[in-house]
Design goal:
One of its GO terms (cellular component) is cytoplasm. GO terms for molecular function: aldehyde dehydrogenase (NAD+) activity. The structure is a single chain. This protein has helices at residues 11-21, 59-62, 81-102, 138-156, 176-184, 214-226, 243-250, 259-271, 279-287, 294-299, 308-318, and strands at residues 2-6, 27-32, 46-50, 67-70, 106-110, 161-167, 169-171, 200-204, 211-213, 231-235, 253-257. It is an alpha/beta fold. The strands form three sheets. It has a seven-stranded parallel beta sheet with strand order 3-2-1-4-5-6-10, sandwiched between helices. It has a two-stranded parallel ribbon with strand order 7-9. Strands 8-11 form a two-stranded parallel ribbon. Helices cover 38% and strands 16% of the residues. The protein starts with a strand and ends in a 14-residue tail after the last helix.
Length: 332
């Protein structure tokens, strides 16, 4: 099959490329704003094309594809939500329009756990849970709005097989430097996460979340592009990450702190441009539902090869060692 992966050089996109090209499975075109200067020959080769989803004509890039996988996303600048909206929402709308105009029969889109509405307890939710966003953070609003775009496109174009993937937090070692820059900003330097330098970790009271390794997400996206499935799929590895797991991963003692106070402090630091993530994103983290991934396991034959703790450990261990790759967004 021929796949076109938009946003192919990022965290999820790079994982989709690895899976889709393994053993020469599929013909893959990788689309990115900055195509990497990589040699292309032999098994697993990706044909790279440069394009910006906000302005370039995407139809020629998508023509002849059996499926389009759209995972392009711009998290920063969080201080300029009109800029992220242009890429994340209007860009996604342009991708969907191009899918229709190019006659592509299937599109797989990256949604997120953050699109879901808050949950009051830890009972696992299915894909039927409301998608009004976990908080007022721009990331959550954009993911929730895109769900409405997907609904509208499905209604208008029932001939196109549309799949929306809703993963938990996606981690891998090669994205460590990128994720440090995105979320922590200039204050958290790579050496500061060396375990011997972390005696105590403050953890907001009640914090619990799910994670999934990018490699497992790449397998799920590729399966969704290849199989005759439609609709939404939750993706999360087994187990919850709590204060206990964080302490074990960092070999440090933990102390509970007020979530509200932590959110206020984070907001203040964000307004000072000391950190990359606003307090509203922590609010979302504290409210996220627990995902049931049963549909992915059943219909995609998906079994994560890594636990959520494994995924988080990969990125945490990669930060002090400046983990990254030769792909532009994932540079060290």
């Amino acid at each position: 099959m021929k796949f076109v992966v938009i946003g192919a050089s990022g965290n999820i996109g790079s994982a989709v490329l690895r899976e889709a090209t393994a053993h020469g499975k599929h013909q893959v075109v990788g689309v990115a704003r900055r195509a990497p200067d990589l040699p292309g020959s032999g098994e697993g080769t990706v044909t790279w094309r440069e394009a910006d989803v906000t302005r370039d004509d995407l139809v020629p890039l998508l023509s002849g594809a059996d499926a389009v996988v759209h995972v392009a996303w711009k998290f920063q600048p969080t201080h300029a939500p009109e800029e992220t909206w242009e890429t994340n929402v209007l860009g996604t709308k342009r991708v969907l329009e191009a899918v229709h105009r190019a006659g592509v029969p299937a599109v797989v889109l990256a949604s997120s756990i953050a699109a879901y509405s808050p949950a009051a307890d830890d009972a696992p939710v299915t894909e039927e849970w409301a998608t009004d966003g976990a908080s007022t953070a721009a990331y959550c609003r954009e993911k929730a709005y895109n769900e409405r775009l997907f609904d509208s496109f499905e209604a208008a174009h029932p001939d196109v097989r549309l799949v929306r993937m809703r993963p938990a937090f996606v981690f891998q070692r090669s994205a460590a430097s990128e994720q440090r820059r995105i979320f922590a900003g200039p204050l958290l330097r790579p050496p500061m996460l060396r375990k011997e330098l972390i005696p105590l970790v403050p953890v907001p009271r009640g914090l619990r979340f799910q994670a999934v390794h990018a490699g497992d997400v790449g397998r799920a996206f590729t399966a969704a592009a290849s199989r005759d499935v439609r609709g939404a799929f939750n993706l999360a590895a087994d187990g919850l990450i709590t204060r206990v797991e964080l302490g074990d991963l960092l070999s440090a003692r933990t102390v509970e702190v007020s979530p509200r106070l932590t959110s206020h402090l984070l907001s203040a630091a964000w307004h000072l441009r000391a950190v990359g993530a606003p307090g509203a994103l922590l609010d979302a983290l504290m409210r996220l539902p627990v995902l049931s991934s049963e549909r992915a396991r059943t219909e995609l034959d998906w079994e994560p090869h890594h636990s959520g703790v494994d995924a988080l450990e990969a990125v945490l261990s990669g930060i002090p060692e400046r983990g990254g790759s030769s792909l532009p967004p994932l540079h060290r």
